[in-house]
Amino acid sequence: MPKNKTHSGAKKRFKLTGTGKVKHASAMNVHKFEEKHSSRKRRVAVDQVLADGDAKKIKKLLGK
Q: Which fold has domain 8-62?
Protein backbone atom coordinates (compact mmCIF):
# COMPACT_ATOMS: atom_id res chain seq x y z
CA MET A 1 0.00 0.00 0.00
CA PRO A 2 1.46 3.43 -0.91
CA LYS A 3 2.29 6.04 1.69
CA ASN A 4 -0.06 8.98 2.23
CA LYS A 5 1.30 12.33 1.17
CA THR A 6 1.16 15.35 3.48
CA HIS A 7 -0.93 18.22 2.14
CA SER A 8 1.69 20.82 1.20
CA GLY A 9 -0.61 23.79 1.89
CA ALA A 10 -1.54 22.49 5.33
CA LYS A 11 2.04 21.86 6.42
CA LYS A 12 2.88 25.52 5.71
CA ARG A 13 -0.06 26.86 7.72
CA PHE A 14 -0.48 24.55 10.72
CA LYS A 15 1.74 23.04 13.43
CA LEU A 16 0.99 20.40 16.03
CA THR A 17 1.69 21.06 19.70
CA GLY A 18 3.20 18.48 22.00
CA THR A 19 -0.24 17.51 23.29
CA GLY A 20 -1.63 17.05 19.76
CA LYS A 21 -3.51 20.32 19.38
CA VAL A 22 -3.28 22.24 16.09
CA LYS A 23 -1.84 25.77 16.11
CA HIS A 24 -2.39 28.37 13.39
CA ALA A 25 -1.56 32.02 12.83
CA SER A 26 -4.25 34.64 13.38
CA ALA A 27 -5.84 36.42 10.46
CA MET A 28 -5.46 40.19 9.88
CA ASN A 29 -1.73 40.15 10.64
CA VAL A 30 -0.12 40.91 7.28
CA HIS A 31 -0.55 44.54 6.30
CA LYS A 32 -2.36 47.84 6.99
CA PHE A 33 -1.05 48.07 10.55
CA GLU A 34 -1.39 51.87 10.63
CA GLU A 35 -5.16 51.66 11.02
CA LYS A 36 -5.15 48.91 13.67
CA HIS A 37 -4.80 49.88 17.31
CA SER A 38 -1.93 48.52 19.38
CA SER A 39 -3.97 46.09 21.45
CA ARG A 40 -5.46 44.58 18.29
CA LYS A 41 -2.00 44.16 16.75
CA ARG A 42 -0.77 42.40 19.88
CA ARG A 43 -3.83 40.15 19.93
CA VAL A 44 -3.48 38.99 16.32
CA ALA A 45 0.28 38.44 16.64
CA VAL A 46 -0.25 35.41 18.90
CA ASP A 47 -0.84 31.94 17.42
CA GLN A 48 -4.26 30.42 18.11
CA VAL A 49 -5.36 26.84 18.76
CA LEU A 50 -7.76 25.41 16.21
CA ALA A 51 -11.23 24.17 17.27
CA ASP A 52 -11.56 20.41 17.79
CA GLY A 53 -13.84 19.83 14.80
CA ASP A 54 -11.50 21.62 12.41
CA ALA A 55 -8.41 20.08 14.00
CA LYS A 56 -9.62 16.60 13.09
CA LYS A 57 -9.67 17.55 9.38
CA ILE A 58 -6.28 19.26 9.53
CA LYS A 59 -4.64 16.30 11.28
CA LYS A 60 -5.83 14.10 8.44
CA LEU A 61 -4.24 16.47 5.91
CA LEU A 62 -1.02 16.44 7.92
CA GLY A 63 -1.02 12.65 8.02
CA LYS A 64 -1.43 12.38 11.80
A: Factor Xa Inhibitor (4.10.410)
